[in-house]
Amino acid sequence: MTGPLPAPPSPTRPTTPRQVADRYVEAVCDLDPIVATSLGSRPGDDRLPDFSPAGLEADAELDRRTLAALDALGPVEDAVERRCARLLRERLSAQLAVHEAGEGYRTLSNLFSPIHSTRQVFALMPTAGEEDWEVVGRRLARVPEAYRGFAESLREGVRRGLLAAPRQVATVVGQLDEWLAGPYFTTFVADGPARLGEELRASAAAADAAVAEVRDFLRDEYAPATAGTPDAVGRERYALAVRRWTGSDLGAGSGLEDAYAWGWAEHRRILDEQELAAGKVLAGGTPAEARRWLHDHGPAVEGVEAIRAHLQALMDRTITELDGEHFDLAEPIRRVEAMIAPPGSAAAPYYTRPAQDFSRPGRTWLPTLGRTRFPLWDLVSTWYHEGVPGHHLQLAQWALVSGQLSTYQTSIGQVSADAEGWALYAERLMDELGYFADPGERLGFLDEQQLRAIRVVIDIGMHLRLAVPQDAEGVLAEHRGRPWSPELARAFLAEHTGAPAEMLDSEVVRYLGIPGQAIGYKLGERAWREGREAAQQACGAAFDLKSWHMAALSQGSLGLDDLAAELAQL
Predict the structure, then answer these.
(1) Which terminus of the chain has fewer CB atoms gathered within 10 Å of its CB, N or C?
(2) How far is CA 336 from CA 107, 127, 313, in A?
(3) With left for phi above 0 and alpha for psi between -120 and 50, is residue 283 left, alpha or beta?
(4) InterPro entries recorded for this chain (predicted)?
(5) Strand pairing partners for 338?
(6) Which residues contact 439 (CB under 8 A, 6 or more apart)?
(7) DSSP letters of 151-166?
(8) Which residues pair with 301 in a beta bridge?
C-alpha cells in the first residue's frame, strides 16, 4: 500500500513503561491507519489496514516485541508507570491469546469486524476542504484491497476449521444489502467538492463494488462452509473473550457461574423497581403495559432531524447543569455532537471518541431503523450513557490528560468493561441526582438497567449453555433447568425490555457474535460503584464526589481486576 510513510523509529531505547506504550501506539498506527484516524494523529493518511493473514501476524509480532521491551525494563517504582505497565502487559497478553487461538480468522459480527471498521473510518475523516476530500478519495480506492484481505483471512479460517456461525454471516450479508441500497459510499461522496466529483465518484463506485464483492463472497462461498457451526462458543473460547473485553480472568474457577448468578439476582431486584415505576406511569399497569402506553401515547419527537436536534439540546443542557456542580469540564470537553447513524448499522446507539487533539469532537449516533417517530421515554437514559455524563465525559477527559499519562492508557488501551461500566454508572448517577423525576423517563432508565442485567445472564448462559434458574417466571417458567438458547434469550429480552423487534434480533446476534463483551456493562458498573463506596468509607465526611469523579476520569483505562481497588484509593 502506498501513502504517508510510517513515523521514523526513535533512536533511543525506551526507559519507562509509558515510553514503551506510546511507541506501541505509533507502531499500531503504522499497521492500522484506522486507529490513527480515530486518534486524529495522521489526518493525511489514506491507507487502510492489511486484514489478510499476513496482517494479522504482523499485529501479533508487534505485540510480542512490545512485551519483550516491557520485560527489559525491569522493576518499576513509580505508581503511574506501574499502572501503565500493568495495563499494557495485560492487554497485549490478552490480544496474543486471542490471536493464537485463531480468532482473527473468524472475526465476523454485526458490530465489530473489518467490514464495519472500514466503513466507519470515513465518518471520522475530516471533510472541510478539497485536500481532505482528496485523502477520502485515495482511501476509498483502497477499500477493495482491504476487503479482499479480510476475505483471505476468512478463507484461511475455513482451511483451519475456524468458522463464524451462520447466524453472523446472514446478519452481515443483510447489512451489506442495506449499504448497497444507497449505495453507501456513492452517497457519502455526494457532498464532495465539484472539482473532485469525477474522481470521488469513481473511487466510491469501486468501494461500493467491493462491498458487493464481499457480500457475494460471504453469501455464496463462506456461508455454505459455516453450515453446522454452533452459535455458542463454549467455555474455553468464552473465557478468552471475557478477558479481552473485561481485563479480568473470570474464566478461572467459578467466576463465570458467580457472575451469572449475580446477574440473575440483579434482574430480580430491578424487576421489583420496574413494577413500582410502571404503576406511576399507568395505574395498575405492568411494566410491559406501561412501556406500550409510553410508546403510543408518551412524549415523542417527529422527524429524523428533529430528534437529532433534540438529543443535541439534551447533551448541551446536561453539560451546562453538571459542569461546576458535579464535574469540572475543560472547554474542549463541552463540545459533543449528536449524529444520525448511516443505514445498515446495528440497532443500538453508539459513541465515537474525539480526536486526541479535539480536532474532531466526540459524537453520539442514533440508528433510526427506518423510523420517523421517536418516543422519548427510553432515549433520555441512553443519551446520558452514550453522551453526557457517560462515554463522552470519560473518553474526552482521557484525551485531555493523555499527555500526563500516555496515549496508550487513554486510547487504544481502553478496556471495554471500564468504559461501559462508567457509562452505566453515569446513568445511575443521573437517577441519584434526581434527573428521572418524570415517571416514564425513570422507567426508561430501569429498562436500560434491566437490559444490562439480562445481558449478563443470557450472554454467559447461551455460550456456556447454563441452566435457566429454578425460580424463573413468565416465558422462562416452563424452561427451568434447561439450557439457554438464542430463541429463549430473545423471548426473555422481549418480556422485560421495551426494545423493538429489530433491536431484539440485533442484540441476540450481537451477544452470539461478540461473546463476553455485553457482560462488561453491568460488571463494570459494579466495579465503579464498589470503588466509590470504598473511597467514601475511607474518607468519611471529607469525601468530595466531584473531586473523586474528576480523579477517576483522569486515571486512564483499567481492567476489572484493578478498577475497584484503584478507584478506592482516590
Answers:
(1) N
(2) 31, 18, 10
(3) beta
(4) DUF885
(5) 364
(6) 277, 280, 281
(7) HHHHHHHHHHT----H
(8) 374
**Amino acid identity, position 288:** A
Cell output for 477: 417458567
What angle do the packed helices 545-553 and 391-401 form, to 10 degrees?
70
* 3-state secondary structure (DSSP) of residue 413: coil
Q: Assess contact for 502 and 347: CB atoms under 8 A.
A: yes
Q: What is the DSSP string of 166-226?
A: HHHHHHHHHHHHHHHHTTHHHHHGGGS-GGGHHHHHHHHHHHHHHHHHHHHIIIIIIHHHH
* Predicted local confidence at residue 11, as pLDDT: 54
> ∠ at Cα 436 (447, 382), nearest 5°?
45
Report whether pLDDT(7) > 70.
Answer: no
Number of Cβ within a 10 Å radius of residue 457 = 27
- What pLDDT digit, counting tens, does each position of 114-124 carry? 999 999 999 99
Residue 147 is which amino acid? Answer: Y
Q: Would you say 496 and 454 are in contact if contact means Cβ atoms under 8 Å apart?
A: yes
Looking at the whole model, is its pTM more than 0.85? yes
Give the separation between CA 570 and CA 383, rounded to whole angstroms.
27
Q: How far is CA 292 from CA 42, 278, 492, in A?
A: 48, 11, 17
Amino acid at 387: G
Residue with cell 459524537: 363
The domains of the chain are located at 17-230, 255-520
- The residues, ordered by sequence, that sit 6+ positions from 108 with a Cβ below 8 Å of its Cβ are 115, 154, 164, 168, 169, 172, 218, 513
